[in-house]
């Protein structure tokens, strides 16, 4: 059995990790941490685990948390993982960080987008960006894995085949994305209050969202050159889900059928990518509670642009499920182990 610890197991991502890991046939959860809930029983914080997982929250200590475990999942707020990870990676344990703290390769990006000086910037060069559809071999050998964000997962997977195959112009790419309110985390904020978020749609951090450099970094690697995108996120009044619509100009005329064939080849043997047939488009309800990313596309011959649509569950493929997918690869298991879950419909 793979013994795991989950640090920060009181947020939405942490609880989703526990839900998935609890039913993983090769995993034993041995330790959970929380600063605010230290000493409390898991079932007292999350009653859904009563009778299923009897654990007590511990404070996070980077030395003791790695004792007797094979994997540590860090479900901590952004800029917190970078403070404790260096001590953890000194041990034999493998670390999967679900924050943004080790996703970006340039320390300057943390100053600009997260407004911090990275205290462990030396680890940025060796951390692995954990999008297994693009970096499978690197994931397998990772010691420190940076789990992608939910918006970048949906956006990068939507555009990767077109970028790598040079089918689109690299300037003028527009990414319009919507997220359910759990994407903002569990900490109460005025704009997440029910009367504020319900029956409303709101763009936020326009031109300044911290996931922008993550998207540009990974698409730039595929393109072999630096690129920039216009990325605008929106908050939509539902609990779960990310819906991404990307627009790009085609370099040469192409049909919808030809590009769907390209996507089918690119994502062949990628078990969590479902490329939809022509004139069928993703819905968040069909990926809710799953580790799937559904992708559809349409060529607008009138404008010479391609429109690509993708949907993921922000807490699963956009966070906890992808982390477990990465763990499976890192520990030599079949990629789908513990993740063969149909959507929660209705």
Tags for this model:
346 residues, alpha/beta, Rossmann fold, 10 helices
Architecture overview:
The protein has 346 residues and is an alpha/beta fold. It folds into 2 domains: 2-126, Rossmann fold (3-Layer(aba) Sandwich), CATH 3.40.50; 151-313, Dihydrodipicolinate Reductase, domain 2. It has 10 helices and 13 strands. The strands form 2 sheets. A 7-stranded mixed beta sheet has the order 8-9-7-10-13-12-11. Strands 2-1-3-4-6-5 form a 6-stranded parallel beta sheet, with helices on both faces. Strand 5 (128-129), helix 5 and strand 6 form a beta-alpha-beta unit. Helix 1 packs across helix 10, helix 5 packs parallel to helix 10 (316-330) and helix 6 (150-164) runs parallel beside helix 8 (212-223). It is globular. 46% of the residues are buried. The mean pLDDT is 96.
Portion in beta strands:
15-25%
Helix content estimate: 25-40%
Give the CA-based shape.
globular
Helix-strand sequence: EHEHEHEHEHEHEHEHEEHEEEH
Reading side by side through the largest sheet, how are the strands ordered?
Answer: 8-9-7-10-13-12-11
Kindly name the structural category. alpha/beta
CATH class of the largest domain, named Alpha Beta
CATH topology of the largest domain: Dihydrodipicolinate Reductase, domain 2
Number of domain units: 2
According to DSSP, the number of beta strands is 13
Mean pLDDT reading: 96
């Amino acid at each position: 059995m793979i013994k795991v610890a989950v640090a920060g197991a009181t947020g939405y991502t942490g609880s989703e990790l526990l839900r998935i890991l609890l039913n993983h046939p090769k995993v034993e959860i041995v330790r959970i941490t929380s600063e605010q809930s230290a000493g409390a029983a898991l079932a007292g914080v999350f009653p859904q685990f009563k009778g299923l997982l009897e654990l007590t929250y511990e404070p996070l200590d980077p030395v003791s948390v790695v004792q007797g475990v094979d994997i540590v999942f860090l479900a901590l707020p952004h800029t917190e993982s970078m403070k404790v990870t260096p001590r953890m990676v000194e041990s034999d344990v493998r670390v999967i960080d679900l924050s943004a703290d080790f996703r970006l390769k340039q320390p300057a990006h943390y100053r600009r987008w997260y407004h911090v000086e990275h205290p462990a910037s030396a680890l940025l060069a060796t951390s692995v960006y954990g999008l297994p559809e693009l970096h499978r071999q690197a994931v397998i050998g990772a010691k420190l894995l940076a789990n992608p964000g939910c918006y970048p997962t949906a956006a990068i997977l939507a555009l990767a085949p077109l970028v790598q195959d040079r089918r689109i112009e690299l300037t003028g790419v527009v990414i319009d994305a919507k997220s359910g309110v759990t994407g903002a985390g569990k900490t109460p904020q005025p704009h997440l209050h029910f009367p504020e978020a319900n029956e409303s749609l709101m763009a936020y951090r326009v031109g300044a969202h911290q996931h922008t450099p993550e998207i540009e970094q990974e698409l730039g690697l595929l393109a072999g050159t630096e690129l920039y995108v216009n990325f605008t996120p929106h908050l939509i009044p539902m609990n779960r889900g990310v819906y991404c619509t990307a627009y790009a100009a085609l370099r040469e005329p192409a049909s919808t059928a030809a590009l769907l064939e390209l996507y089918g080849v690119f994502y062949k043997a990628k078990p969590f990518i479902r490329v939809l047939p022509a004139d069928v488009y993703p819905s968040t309800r069909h990926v809710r509670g799953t580790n799937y990313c559904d992708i559809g596309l349409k060529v607008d011959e009138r404008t010479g642009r391609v429109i690509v649509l993708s949907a993921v569950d922000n807490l699963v493929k956009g966070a906890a499920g992808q982390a477990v997918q990465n763990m499976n690869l890192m520990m030599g298991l079949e990629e789908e182990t513990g993740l063969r879950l149909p959507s929660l419909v209705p």
